[in-house]
Amino acid sequence: METMIPVQTPKKKLKKRKNKKKPETKTRPKSKKQPLYRVILWNDDDHTFEYVILMMCQIFKYDFKKGMEIALRVHQNGKAEVAVVPLEIAELRRDQIRTFGPDSLVEDCYSSMYATIEAAE
Predict the structure, then answer these.
(1) Within 42-102, where are the H helices?
(2) How high is the pLDDT of residue 33?
(3) pTM: predicted TM-score of the whole model, two decimal places
(4) 79 and 42 Cβ atoms separated by less than 8 Å
(5) What is the pLDDT of residue 32?
(6) What's the mean pLDDT in 44-60?
(7) For the chain, which terminus, N or C, has the lower number of CB atoms within 10 Å?
(8) Which residues lie closer than 8 Å to 37 by C-beta, 6 or more apart?
(9) C-alpha atoms less than 13 angstroms from C-alpha of 49 in its C-beta half-sphere
C-alpha cells in the first residue's frame, strides 16, 4: 500500500486594494430642446390649388391628401400653418416656398407664394 504524503499548495498573497475611486462616468448635459417655429403659407389670387399641392409634396414631402388640406386651409382662412419645426429648418422651408417659382397654370403669375415664420411658443 502506498503512503500518501500531504502536499501543501502555495498560498497566493492577496494584495490589498488601495482606495481606488470608481471610474467616473461621463454624463452628457441634457440638451435643451430647440424652440419651434411655425411656417405660415399666405393666400393670394395668383396660384392654383394644383400649385400649392405640388409645392407641399415637393418641399415638405407631404402626400396629395395633406397638400390638398393645406391648399383648402390657405384658400378659406387666408393663411395656413404648414409645419412646426426648429428655426433653421423653418427658415429653409420658408425660403424654398418663396423661391418655388411662378404657377405655370396661371398666365399672369410671375412669382412664388409668400411664406413667413413665427415662434410656436
Answers:
(1) 49-60, 64-77, 87-98
(2) 85
(3) 0.72
(4) yes
(5) 77
(6) 96
(7) N
(8) 84, 85, 86, 87, 90, 117, 118, 119, 120
(9) 12
Q: Which residue has the cell 500518501?
A: 4
Question: Averaged over 30-59, what is the pLDDT?
Answer: 93
- Which candidate, 72, 60, 44, places its Cα nearest to that of 97? 60
Compute the distance between CA of residue 12 and CA of residue 9 in angstroms, rounded to an integer: 9
Instruction: Indicate whether 102 pLDDT > 60.
Output: yes
- State the chain's mean pLDDT as an integer: 87
Other C-beta atoms within 10 Å of 42: how many?
Answer: 13
Residue-level pLDDT at 121: 79
Diameter of the chain measured on Cα atoms: 119
Cell of 106: 396661371
Cell 500531504 belongs to residue: 6
Question: Residue 65: helix, strand or coil by DSSP?
Answer: helix
CB atoms within 10 A of CB 1: 3
> d(Cα 91, Cα 83) in Å, to the nearest integer?
11
Residue percentage of the chain with pLDDT more than 90: 69
